[in-house]
Amino acid sequence: MSTRFKAVIFDLDGVITDTAHYHYLAWKRLADSVDAPFDEAFNEQLKGVDRMGSLELILARAPRTYKPEEKRALADAKNGHYQESIATMTPGDLLPGALRALEEVRAAGLKIGLASVSRNAFTVLDRLGIRDRFDDVVDAATVVNGKPDPEIFLTAAAHLGVDPRDCLGVEDAAAGVASIKDAGMFAVGVGSPDVLHRADRVIPSMAAFRLSDY
After folding, report:
1. What's the pTM value of the predicted model, to 2 decimals?
2. Is 129 exposed, middle or buried, given 0-12, 13-18 or 19+ CB atoms closer than 10 A?
3. pLDDT in tens, 164-187
4. Residue 206 contacts residue 45 (beta carbons within 8 Å)
5. Which of 101, 153, 194, 211 is the most exposed place for a label (fewest CB within 10 A)?
6. Structure confidence by residue, pLDDT tens digits, 82-118
7. How far apart are CA 64 and CA 28, in angstroms?
């Protein structure tokens, strides 16, 4: 297969698997505990945002302010709720087309990276049975700045030994697409063109991913 890229870097949530509902339930439980209004519409604002950033958005709606140590405890509590949920994940939770996309990229001889703001990325990959499919995994513990900052994609490219201009990034969130573009990469958005307007190409789902299209 002919392609101009040397590596493909995937996001995790919403691209390889859908943990959005698990995150929603965990954040809803946390928000309820601090009397902050929380629904699925507000939850959309957290898409692609790291844990502490998401917590700040929720606490901005709470009736009182919180000290740094309280925020850390709340973030840990949310993570505990989330970990309880993902412990039940299996390879059956891979999104349609995700495994085929990984196999296609590997068959083309390209390197494969993962750039996820999740601190549970390795656990999720293990539950899905695909950790060995990736040449490198960059998660929130590896970088200082979360998306939309380009650091996580630049770090992934550096770990893979590939120039960012030779990388294709795949994301489902506007913040993630911004991260890819600001890293100087080609961006494939998974979702709605109205939301992912900075992407070079938008596909409705991973089932539509074809490396030869780019």
Report:
1. 0.84
2. middle
3. 999 999 999 999 999 999 999 999
4. no
5. 194
6. 998 898 899 999 999 999 999 999 999 999 999 998 8
7. 17
